[in-house]
Fold:
Amino acid sequence: MKYPVLAALAVAVASLHAADEAKPAAAAAVPTPPPAKIVKPLTPEQVKQAWTMLGFSIASQSPMPQVNSQLELTDEEIELFLVGVRQALRGDKPKFDPAELGEGADAMFQERVNAKAGKWGKQNEEFLAKIDADKSVTKTASGLRYKILAPGSAVKPTKESTVKCRYEGKLVDGKVFDSTKTRNNEPTEFPLSGVIPAWTEGVQLIGVGGKIVLYCPAAIAYGEQGQGPIPGKSVLEFEVELVEISKAK
Structure:
């Protein structure tokens, strides 16, 4: 996101530097400046949308989504949470003594986290048990489960390869947490040595044009802690298409 005030400041600084530079002895032809870009003013509704977009951008890059994921806040709890956010934005202080909540609040939050973790762990175990009962799924020594949908070319990548893939990643409840479909289905490029172990192992099983479904236990994915929208101890399901094998970078 570009911030107009910062952009204007950058232009002003650049102009000052240009003015300090030595002038050439002979007059040079002054190039015709490009026409100024005309920016269409926002409508009143778009102004509201711009403020919403700013809030969304900041909140989505903060720990807030993880807080909601761990605590599973109700609509009422979200509204109470936002009261605190508004107070912080305005520089106000709560109208109560936070010290009086202390250990009681910590215990309540921890109890909620533990309950969610227990329920989530059971859900992941049941998912793996269902996968293991599927005779079309192969299990490797690492614990990776996979099913090849299309083998692709005879040439396969190695762990030193850089590859381009289209993919979709889901949690065991079916929630999609990442997908190239949301990015115009453009393949993502990455070194196989720089991804989760389940991917490093699994993508080597297919060639260019191949497709594979990977069922990744937490131990070879994001572990006990999780990452971003992925809770700790999560079993992940990926459908991966290998688009290209590049040389190691």
Observations:
- Residues 136-246 form a domain with the Chitinase A; domain 3 fold (CATH 3.10.50.40).
- Residues 102-132 form the longest helix (31 residues).
